[in-house]
């Protein structure tokens, strides 16, 4: 198997950075009722969720996620299960973690987590959604559509683009995911899965250029 590159090519940097910046909601963190760690291939989501818990940002964590083609090899027992195990290793107490192991998309993450909390009689007025950096905007738009009454903040592990690519270990994977999530902003809103989000011309131009460069693996 060829070694995966972690170096962002100079001729793609501006376009990738444009999409990276677009998906960051730049929300200011404040204490909330629940921290929701959205399952993905990125174990850094669980790491940052644990850090926020220890910082007193929320008293309860829900890790949500089953598997997807991009995660089944990395997390064979399910994304949420592996996230929980990682958080326990980082010192989060077991009784502060709930696991929702069935969600297979962001809509499921929101609706199944909401159902789980309601089934436990836990009243929620505010949440912090912890995700991959480039999932923030889509997670926000989905939550506002499916759980509009809750106050939602989005957060990700605060890594610069190059450090994030290094942490994932595969620049092509990161670019493909960025392009796919950008497409989903408009497609999912059009299908009624999420609220409408503005997409500036520079974002559209960068997105289209990266598609022309062959980063199409995560397109719907």
From TrEMBL:
<dbReference type="InterPro" id="IPR051599">
    <property type="entry name" value="Cell_Envelope_Assoc"/>
</dbReference>
<dbReference type="InterPro" id="IPR014729">
    <property type="entry name" value="Rossmann-like_a/b/a_fold"/>
</dbReference>
<feature type="domain" description="DUF218">
    <location>
        <begin position="48"/>
        <end position="153"/>
    </location>
</feature>
<dbReference type="GO" id="GO:0005886">
    <property type="term" value="C:plasma membrane"/>
</dbReference>
<dbReference type="Pfam" id="PF02698">
    <property type="entry name" value="DUF218"/>
</dbReference>
<dbReference type="InterPro" id="IPR003848">
    <property type="entry name" value="DUF218"/>
</dbReference>
<protein>
    <recommendedName>
        <fullName>DUF218 domain-containing protein</fullName>
    </recommendedName>
</protein>
